[in-house]
Amino acid sequence: MKDLLAALDLNALPELSLGTAALLILGVCAVLVIVRGVFRILFGSLVLCASGFAAYLTWKNTPLMTQDGSLHWVSFVPAAIVGIVVLLLLRWIMRFLSKPFSRSEGGETAQRSPLRWVVTLLFSLVPTSVLWVGGATFLRSIGSVAEIQHFADGDSATDRSTFFAALKSSIDKAIPEDWFKKIDPLSDDARVTLAKLIALGDSAPPPKAIAVMEEPQIRALIEHDPQLRTLAKEKRYADILRDPRLDNVVADPDLSAMLAGLKL
Question: Is 158 part of a structural domain of the chain?
Answer without folding.
Answer: no
